[in-house]
Amino acid sequence: MAKDKSGYIIAAAFIGPGTVTTASLAGANFGFHLVWALLFSIVATMVLQDMAARLGVATGKGLASNLRDMATAPWLQKLFTLLIIAAIGIGNAAYESGNLTGAAIGLNAFADLGTGTWALLLGVLAVMLMWTGRYRLIETVLVVLVFIMALVFVLTLIFTKPDWQAMFLQLLSPQLDVDTITMVLALIGTTIVPYNLFLHASLVAKNYQGAEKAAAIRASRRQSAIAIGVGGLITLVIVATAMMAFFHQAATMDVTNMGNQLSPVLGEWAQWLFAMGLFAAGLTSAITAPLAAAFAVCGALNLKEDLTSWPFRAIWLAIIITGVAIAAAGFKPLAAIVFAQAANGVLLPVIAVFLLIVMNKNKQLGAFRNGTTSNLLGLLVVTVVVCLGLYKLGSLSI
């Protein structure tokens, strides 16, 4: 059996232009004072993705299929189907424009063809890769892009000559108040991505037999922990880079042109590296967002979750075309990404609660059903995110 790299695909999925933008703004405006939220998000992602992976391995089905099977009443099945199509299908179509625009901005730093042209070319590239239906090829491309991101963002940080002592001191003085709550929710929302739970469960859903299930789950846990840790490290490096370049500096971070804004601070080569990282981040998410939506919607509609099936291809193709159309029209959604990620953080507990219910109620899980530790960690994640969301709502009325 070929070694599964689904954890790296999840890392590729959550490190998109939204992550680059949100992490850059967090570092520029608040330094390392909000890194506690990022560290919480990384641990929470590992906990929730482990549940999704166990569900996929043990049942041989994705999260959407399991949610549909759990709902015995026809009206509840229809409600789940509508929620999944609206939140994951339509939502990912909206995110796709941001993914393509982010990658296009990165490429435009190398050759000024216009972000619309680059978005169109990237959309064609994504379609060509996805149309092959070759999972291992898609997986390999995404893993390579993750490591490119890791390399270029680390090199960019080196250009800033980081002040490790200042970072450590700020890490020890975390902040949470009316001024920081939106950014805290955005950091959580850009790391713990609800559609990744659907994606991960579907990627590992195979017909394992007997002891193969336990071995597959152990391997998935190790590999996911490493991959998600790498993704978290990339995000942390982006926060550190923006902190050193902009925190308490005269320069201001402009999210619509981050690479060019870094040029006078870090130098021409660092700006190019940052642009390359933004391109890699955008392209990975431009591939994984439609892939996740296709798995989720096919599962919700009880259609075949196969990369070569026509319904599967029709769903991801519609999402890419929508993203290309919006991006090519010149709409630049990067300015709204922080709000979108904050909304994602508020939506997260709803999906997490459903996942917890499935992990305790599904009889197919057997020995892989949630134990006390998993349930407590899952409830802790849900509680923290709900409390932050309520705090955000309360702050709006102040």
Automatic annotation (TrEMBL):
GO CC terms of this entry: plasma membrane
Keywords for this protein: Membrane, Symport, Transmembrane, Transmembrane helix, Transport
Chain segments annotated as transmembrane: 7-28, 34-55, 75-95, 115-133, 140-160, 180-204, 225-249, 269-302, 314-331, 337-359, 371-391
Topological type in the membrane: Multi-pass membrane protein
Taxonomic superkingdom: Bacteria
GO biological process: iron ion transmembrane transport
GO terms, molecular function: cadmium ion transmembrane transporter activity; manganese ion transmembrane transporter activity; symporter activity
Chief subcellular location: membrane
Subcellular location: Membrane
Name the UniProt record assigns to this protein: Nramp family divalent metal transporter
Gene source species: Alteromonas pelagimontana
